[in-house]
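Input/output pair, single chain:
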Amino acid sequence: MGSVVVRRALRSDLGVLLALYEELAGEKLTAIPADPLSAEPRLAEILADPRRELAVATIDGRIIGSADLLVVPNLTHRGEPWAIVENVIVTAAARRSGAGTALMRHLIERARADGCHKVQLLSGKHRTEAHELYRRIGFDAVAEGFKVYFDE
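Output:
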């Protein structure tokens, strides 16, 4: 197996991204990805947003993971922005390949370069393997997370 390369997602990656998000959704029907037709303009919007980076991890040119970063303007912390990471997925067959670490380090560096004072993410309490990864690369579980879903 080759080494992990992280790059920005491309429009041509849509099919693979939707397959990854299908895996991320698992049994949760309300979390399934958009259909390909409606996903195309959404992906174009994401890729055009300068405050956002949808990154993919590849091995030997094959996409095996993805994560999405959004940099948010801010009035606190000396006006420094903050960033949030969402939709982190490495396909089950490629876990422990270094892809998750590479994705997260890439996005952390992007946030640092954008002057962010923090990067945060939420992760389901059952995703203990992912939590190990996040701790290993420097994240601390310092807060209790809360969500309101409108589709459940």
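The domain at 4-136 is CATH 3.40.630.30 (Aminopeptidase). The longest strand covers residues 62-72.
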